[in-house]
Design goal:
This protein is mainly beta and 123 residues long. 0% of the residues lie in helices and 49% in strands.
Length: 123
Amino acid sequence: QVQLVESGGGSVQTGGSLRLSCEYATYSFVCVGWFRQAPGKEREGVVVTYTASRTTTYADSVKGRFTISQDNAKNAMYLQMNNLRPDDTAVYYCAAATRTRCLRRDPIDFSYWGQGTQVTVSS
């Protein structure tokens, strides 16, 4: 059972920053990424990266504000979130996929999930 362990959520005011971390025990994924789910909404893909080529796709709503990064030596990935807005409030999940069709940021393509961490942005 592959485990992804997240940390780094919290509460900030509009314009603030947070950095989420996700560590995993193995590193043989085709894609890794971050998703979020706000109350009453479907889970949406925030950013996904193809681990081999580092090809990355961001949701339009976070482009220029969020950045994904990886540390292969630590089997970890990070999500740096800057200029946060109230509509970024959600539970954030890191995820990993072993199937090649994973860049479309669809949760259905991802088999492994972190436990989720709450991010709250107040105005």
